[in-house]
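User: Here's a chain of 301 residues. Predict its fold as tokens.
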Amino acid sequence: MTGMDAGGRTIPLVERPRHDPGETSHAALENDPHGDVTVDRVALSAELAGGEGRAASADVAEYALWLGDDALILSQQLGMWIARAPELEEDVALANIALDLLGHARSFLRYAGTFDGRTEDDLAYWRDEPEFRCAWLFEQPNGDFGQTIARQLAASTYLFELYTALQGSSDETLAAIAAKAVKEVEYHRDHAVQWTLRLAGGTDESRRRMVRGVDDVWPYVGELFRDEPLIERLGPVAVRPSSLREGFDAVISAVFAEAELDIPAGPMSSAGGRRGSHFPTLGYLLAEMQVLARQHPGATW
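Assistant: Prediction complete.
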């Protein structure tokens, strides 16, 4: 793990390949009460390699919601930084990370929807707060840039460990999505590491904000590694969250040692996002994210 480059710049994100808008979109549900609110009509066959035509079971769909909701909510959070980041390059970097996460969310939510015939749009726009399954870490408010980076460091380090392990899932669809996502999340993690080092090793003010950001988000890390009953039922389909803690801690310890930061020792939040109990800010985030689809059902552009 390295620090900043010689010029003090963050690691640039890889350019994401452009999709062909002429690719075949997924079929609309018959008698869809919400209409078609999709902007991007890209087929997700690449992400769902090995899974086309296969419907998820109830438990697999629930697990896919865990993963899809985490990515969707974090994407929405990072998108709020566009035109607000501390420098122009970060507008682009955070937007690219948000788009990557949105792609992961689309893949997981589409697969989850095969259980009961709902589309990715139905799951994103037409579920209410108790129906979401995201962990509380992803729901934490952006705060200042230091808090966002602290959240991003924890989230991307966790997601890298998760997707690395999920490539070995006995479910071909989940394994295929993870194999694509892990390559992108590795860059997300490197970006967060570079900014952690930069803020912690910068001015007194930047360090103060980085320390405060870590203190604010760390109580919500524990939920990521909690083994819920669903994991027991899924067996080799899912990744046991507790098994990811060692790899996560090793990365965080190395980063914090280089940044001369302390890992907070305070109590962990009980949280409950996997069971539909959410941090108070999620409702406001969903209201903003879902307002267009709900006020103009069936809109196309």
